[in-house]
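Q: Hi! First time asking for a complex rather than a single chain. Here are the components, and I think there are two in total. Is that enough to go on?
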Amino acid sequence: MFFYVIRRLLYMIPTLLGVAFLTFLLFTIFGEDPVRQALGLHASEEAIVALRAKWGLDQSFAKQFYDFLVQILTFDYGESFSTGEKLSDIFCGGVLVSLSLTAPPFVFGTLFNIVIALFISYFRGKSLDKISTFLFVVSMSISYLVYIIVLQYLLAYRFGWFPIQGFEPGFSSISYLMLPWFIIGLVSMGPDIRLFRTIFLDQVKSDYIRTARAKGASEPRVLFVHLLKNAMIPILTNTVIAIPFLITGAFVMERYFALPGIGDITITAINEGDFPIIKAMTVMSAVLYSCFNLLTDVLYALVDPRVKLS
Amino acid sequence: MGEVKVTNTIPFQYDTKKIVKIKNRFVRRFFSQIQNNKQFLFSSLIILFYVFVACLGWMNLLPDFQARVGVSYESPSLSFAKIFGTDIFGRSVFFKLLAGTQTAVTMGFVVTAIAVPIGLVLGSIAGYYGKTLDIFITWLYSVIASVPDILLLIAISYSLGKGLMAVCVAMAASYWISLCRMIRGEFIKHKESEYVLAAKLLGANDFVVIFKHILPNVIHIAIVTSSLMILNAIKAEVMLTYLGVGIQDGASWGAMISAVPGELTNEIWWSLAAVVSFMFLVIYALNVVGDTLRDILDPKLLN
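A: Yes, that's all I need. Here is the structure of the assembled complex.
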């Protein structure tokens, strides 16, 4: 197990190098010129040269790439092109906002969806099952953006139950986050419950369920005690792998409700050609993604004694 | 034991009649399954209708969506152009929808046409040959998969310039990964199986083994995945256009939805209703078709 983790951590190095190179390629070599974007089309030659030198863009690509790698190793990505703030400050604030936006609906939504999915699999093949399956496909066929637009219009603009958009730090942020939480929870129901239902129905056919029934266990006991415990393995792995996306945030949601999370920061950075933020954001999410991938595999082996890591 | 000599004279002849029979049985089973499946037939009809509209668009037979047909924000009435009302510039919402359909179908086709071959070929090579090739291809897709989808899409469409083709290339660049992963996994399983050994002993080279023997057994994954790809492409286009990197010239469903927030506050509901129902129909149909194909195309379920 220990050696497995070490080896996987070593495997992350070439992947991260690749990510760094890809980011560099896309934004430095092919991307728009940040200096032009910052100073406008009619800037003087001297100003452009000066800013280029300040941002280190006058050096060769190899030198710039080397500097980027050093930044990744030292976790010091410098300052934002557009505001001059320290990147670590920007990201700490952004991560908190993104997490407070996505974590509560993720935790409570997942628990709620598991219960609903169990309930539905209890009635498998009956009309409740068929109707709900149909409804979930319907709900998945509507664009995320449409949910946001319509629910914001109805619940915030029309009925005035929630503030329309914006954000305040501290506990007063809850009133601003209620509606986004509700929307995230609602949208996650379709795909989540369908997935969990499939997982449960896969388990229902297995031998241990038949044994439990043969022992005379009641149907609720079979579902909640025997089945849920075994179904937790695929549910757990499917859930853990989604955690990095909680931190990197919900781009459209943050943009629409003007929440200053990671997603909003990144989109603003892209629009302004703020390369340091983009670089830091890409590398950070790549590290998170790889780490949680590893964590999923390790968890898999920890909860399921049949799985051996090699 | 003497050396086993593999020559090109095939000692064993396939019973071609039997193979044709199996294929027929497969096709017959496919049709008998979909005959009774009204939902599937209905969904296929819907998809065919959208493709038909797109074909009209490719032949330049669709009415011009940029022409003014009335005054600004006219509510729906019973004339052909104003059946879904007009937008802020007095353009027909219906004509815009049709133009958006052409964009969506084009996007679906182009994305799958780029992503599916890449995923299939790289997945088969990685799974079949293993070793260095496998390590390289796995590295390639784990690099791309580690970058969040939307960031990659934005980055590529910025690098290639904004527009329909940039969006398509950007989506294809991340969509081939899931297919490649699945195909690779299947190839790893299949390459050890007896029919592959038999084919090799009969003198088949790697190309024949991969494309003629293993691929037909796993191609259903590609078919099911492409219906998912089209669906995701249509959904992602809405997000990208909202974030400002999608298709900019207005002939897309995403651009129409992005204009909705301002319209709703003025009680303009018809544009939203029209575009949501138009999108809903095709995505629902693709969902149903994808699910049904997954259930009936898997050869493991064929008995």
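A: The radius of gyration of chain A is 24 Å. Let me know if you'd like any chain examined more closely.
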